[in-house]
Design a protein that fits this description.
This is Activator of photopigment and puc expression. The protein is an alpha+beta fold and about 140 residues long. Helix content is about 40%, strand content about 30%. The strands form two sheets. The protein has a five-stranded mixed beta sheet, with helices on both faces. A two-stranded antiparallel sheet has the order 6-7. Bound molecules: flavin mononucleotide. Flavin mononucleotide binds near residues 41, 50, 66 and 69.
């Protein structure tokens, strides 16, 4: 199968609240399961960092749809690469709000990546963005 991983970052719309996030996640879980996409959506200091893994054509049409969504803006594509295997395979979509993480986990992330607002600073660099996502993914499996 032609598997790809897509990572992007965006600024949440000012009005976004927990209910909006829940709506996004409920819909995403349902939709992504149907198109064989797995991944995670991290929310920190009014920014989104999302990773999506799945068949190339499904990912590109999904990203085209997501990037038009008025609940965020300034979508910045960080990486879109072919992969041999999924790394973020546990959920069709899992939302993680870094402001609500356990203090010791947040401290671990802040030490590594720096603080921003009530969350951690989300990096735009491809390697660092992957690293944050990988850490958050495994902290949520523990
Ligand atoms: C930050 C963000 C992440 C999103 N992630 C997904 C996603 O992973 N899968 C998805 O189907 N929709 C996602 N959405 C929602 C889509 O933009 C769109 O509203 C939804 O897919 C429409 O679903 P429908 O065509 O079934 O009505 C996301 C929206 C935002 C703002």
């Amino acid at each position: 199968m032609n598997l790809y991983r897509l990572i992007y970052m965006s600024d949440a719309a000012d009005y976004i609240d927990w209910e909006d996030l829940k709506d996004i996640l409920t819909k995403s879980e349902k939709n992504n399961a149907k198109i064989d996409v797995t991944g995670m959506l991290v929310f920190s200091d009014n920014k989104f960092l999302q990773v999506l893994e799945g068949p190339a054509k499904n990912l590109s049409s999904l990203y085209a749809k997501i990037s038009q969504d008025a609940r965020h803006r300034n979508c910045l594509l960080i990486s879109y690469t072919p992969i041999h295997q999924r790394v973020f395979s546990a959920w069709a979509m899992k939302g993680v709000n870094l402001a609500f993480m356990k203090p010791e986990m947040k401290q671990f992330l802040v030490k590594k990546y720096g603080a921003s607002g009530t969350g951690i600073a989300l990096p735009k660099d491809e390697f660092l963005a992957f690293s944050v996502l990988y850490d958050v993914y495994h902290l949520n499996q523990a």
